[in-house]
Write a structure and sequence with these properties.
This protein has 18 helices and 23 strands. By secondary structure, it is an alpha+beta fold. The relative contact order is 0.12. Helix 5 runs antiparallel to helix 7 and helix 7 runs antiparallel to helix 8. The radius of gyration is 26 Å and the shape is globular. The chain has three domains: about 250 residues, Bira Bifunctional Protein, Domain 2 (BirA Bifunctional Protein, domain 2, 2-Layer Sandwich), CATH 3.30.930; about 80 residues; about 110 residues, Anticodon-binding domain (Rossmann fold, 3-Layer(aba) Sandwich), CATH 3.40.50.800. Strand 12 and strand 13 form a beta hairpin. Helices cover about 40% and strands about 25% of the residues. It comes from Bacteroides sedimenti. One of its GO terms (molecular function) is ligase activity. Keywords: Aminoacyl-tRNA synthetase, ATP-binding, Cytoplasm, Ligase, Nucleotide-binding, Protein biosynthesis. Homodimer.
Length: about 525
């Protein structure tokens, strides 16, 4: 099945089982805005808890804050967002659709990668165990031809981005014969810059109103509070400040479900270090963050680093952790060495001394910052996409199962009476009342037991417990494991211990130590 069709099924599955709904659905939705349903909000909260605990619980020198969405407008002038927070956009005159020029070129680079990988996979099947991939890539004519084209395009693209050369970006699109996905034509406009910040007014009268912005990132709330946190928490460098919160960007090219939205949530940590030590910490956090992702068990080969071709105005090093979505490798987290740009700018614009006094060096300086920034919604999407599975069973039937990491699953345990009589529902309720203080449990008595298993598979519930007539005699139940579908008879008193270790966030955190 084509990956595009798989992705459509995943989007449909998310709506059908209460994970994600189009916002304002009864009014035909609102572009690139989504609501999280009853299952989605549980998964999202579990993702946030895993991240928060991995930062704040596991590190004595990292604390959290929650800053306001509305901030003084000068903050965005100081940070460079007013003048430089732009996307290069290009329109197709035939379809009237607008695209990000850089994304069109990145997709073209991905096509070259895809061609190369197809040649490699064909050769792998042909030669079997004797296949030498490195030698094949270095000698095969078609691979070398595509690699040379890719390298030349990449070099040209990187230079155009770093130079801010919009004309060159358009010329690349023309030279590479990139067509509009809708019209199939190459009738392109010039490339223009578009600022992504939403603005509104704050004040009781139109004359006295002040123009303010919905924050496009959560980082600035940390920077303007860093000295408050440092002093009140008696923090010593190096130390970090973590935050989870909403951010807003007026994305013109919002697409791919919840991957690129206008209202989204970020999990960011700014780590303050001595000048000159930032690149060492940058490397350390790169490794720590990739380890955090891999601990989920979604597949190590699904991740890769992507170093930035164009560094932001504030950075001296930057990389993305990319995850293999159904529509290709895409960024889920960024790690940036932001130097002292933000704090220096805020000191300049606010006119106050916000330097850190280092008691060990007996001097004051502006700290350098290493940032880790992860999109909650993109993380959510990567987990759902990698967990969705259509599995052919031995009896010829097909089941749809979400193989979610057990610690993140919305519902940990479903308890089912075999029939709705003979005291079985009451016994099932008794079990739930014992376990609901530890786990998110669901009671399910509708339909046959087989249909109930399928329903729980589809929402990703790791364990199902069936109460039958024998339970009333021996106080044992049948526990079914989602992934293997294996069943075993266990004592009700053992349920808590059997399930707890597998479904707790602690089980993930232990992998990070």
């Amino acid at each position: 099945m084509a990956q595009e069709d798989v992705f459509k099924k995943i989007v449909s599955h998310c709506k059908e089982y209460g994970y994600v709904f189009p916002s304002s659905d009864i009014y035909d939705g609102l572009g690139a805005v989504y609501d999280y349903g009853q299952m989605g909000v549980e998964l999202k909260n579990n993702i946030k808890k895993y991240w928060w605990d991995s930062m704040v619980l596991l590190h004595e020198n990292i604390v959290g804050i929650d800053s306001a969405i509305f901030m003084h407008p000068t903050i965005w002038k100081a940070s460079g967002h007013v003048d430089a927070f732009n996307d290069p956009l290009i329109d197709n005159k035939d379809s009237k659709k607008r695209y990000r020029a850089d994304v069109l070129i990145e997709d073209q680079l991905a096509k070259y990668d895809e061609k190369i990988n197809k040649e490699v996979e064909k050769a792998r099947k042909r030669f079997g165990e004797s296949f030498d991939e490195a030698q094949f890539r270095a000698t095969n004519g078609r691979v070398l031809e595509n690699q040379n084209k890719r390298d030349a395009l990449h070099e040209r693209f990187a230079k155009a981005l770093n130079d801010g050369n919009l004309e060159e970006l358009r010329q690349i699109i023309l030279d590479e014969e990139i067509v509009c996905p809708i019209s199939g034509t190459r009738n392109w406009t010039e490339v223009r810059q578009f600022n992504l910040m939403f603005s509104t007014e704050m004040g009781s009268t139109s004359d006295g109103a002040m123009k303010v912005y919905l924050r496009p990132e959560t980082a600035q709330g940390i920077f303007v509070n860093y000295l408050n946190v440092q002093k009140t928490g008696r923090m010593k460098i190096p130390f970090g400040i973590a935050q989870i919160g909403k951010a807003f960007r007026n994305e013109i090219v919002a697409r791919q479900f919840i991957f690129r939205m206008r209202e989204f949530e970020q999990m960011e940590m700014q780590f303050f270090v001595r000048p000159g030590e930032e690149l060492t910490w940058f490397q350390s956090w790169k490794e720590q963050r990739l380890k955090w992702h891999k601990a989920l068990g979604l597949g190590d080969t699904k991740y890769r680093y992507h170093d930035h071709d164009k560094l932001a105005h504030y950075a001296n090093a930057a990389t993305d952790i990319e995850f293999e979505m159904p529509f290709g490798f895409k960024e889920v987290e960024g790690i940036h060495s932001r130097t002292d740009f933000d704090l220096s700018q805020h000191e300049k614009y606010c006119g106050k001394n916000i330097k850190y006094f280092d008691p060990e060096l007996n001097e004051s300086y502006t700290p350098y910052v290493v940032e880790t920034s992860i999109g909650v919604d993109r993380m959510f999407l990567s987990i759902v996409c990698s967990s969705y599975c259509e599995e052919k069973l031995e009896n010829g039937e097909t089941r749809v199962v979400l193989r979610l990491p057990a610690a993140l699953a919305p519902v940990k345990l479903a308890v089912m009476p075999l029939v709705k009589k003979d005291g079985l529902p009451e016994k099932a309720r008794e079990i739930i009342n014992q376990l609901k203080f530890q786990f998110n449990c669901q009671y399910d008595e509708k339909d046959s037991i087989g249909k109930r298993y399928r329903r729980q598979d589809a929402i990703g519930t790791p364990y199902c417990v069936t109460v039958d007539h024998q339970t009333l005699e021996d106080n044992c139940v049948t526990i079914r494991h989602r992934d293997s579908m294996e069943q075993e008879r266990v004592s009700i008193s053992e349920l808590s211990n059997i399930i707890a270790d597998k479904v707790s966030i602690t089980s993930l955190l232990k992998k990070l130590i």
